[in-house]
Amino acid sequence: MDHTCFRSKFINIEKDVEEGSRMPFYSVWSNKEVGLQLGTIYWHGRQFVFEPSEDTIWWADCLRDVLGFMEKLHKERAELKKLAVP
Asked: CB 3.0-4.6 Å disulfide test: which of 24, 26, 66, 69 passes with 41?
């Protein structure tokens, strides 16, 4: 099963669910080097955060892709909260 929820020129972002957790997390993978995990996006406190993997170097385009995906997550969460309020 493909869990990819975002794909760009350089990265793939896959949705994962940790057993016992209410919130999913997202693994960021390289499109150029097979099996290279570049970082993780997860809920922390009141927002989604990005934690890069150790010894990774980030280009501006890749950071923009991650930021754009995080902004999409925040927007979706805000929309769900609006629907949940009577």
From this structure: 26
Give the separation between CA 51 and CA 86, rounded to whole angstroms.
35
CB 57 within 8 A of CB 39: no
To 10 degrees, the CA torsion angle through 60, 61, 66, 68?
110
Q: Where are the domains of the chain?
A: 4-84
- Residues 57, 39: Cα–Cα separation, whole Å: 11
The secondary element (H helix, E strand) that includes residue 64 is: helix 60-84
Residue 3 banded pLDDT, cuts 50, 70, 90: confident
Quick one: which of 9, 12, 1 has its CA closest to 69? 12
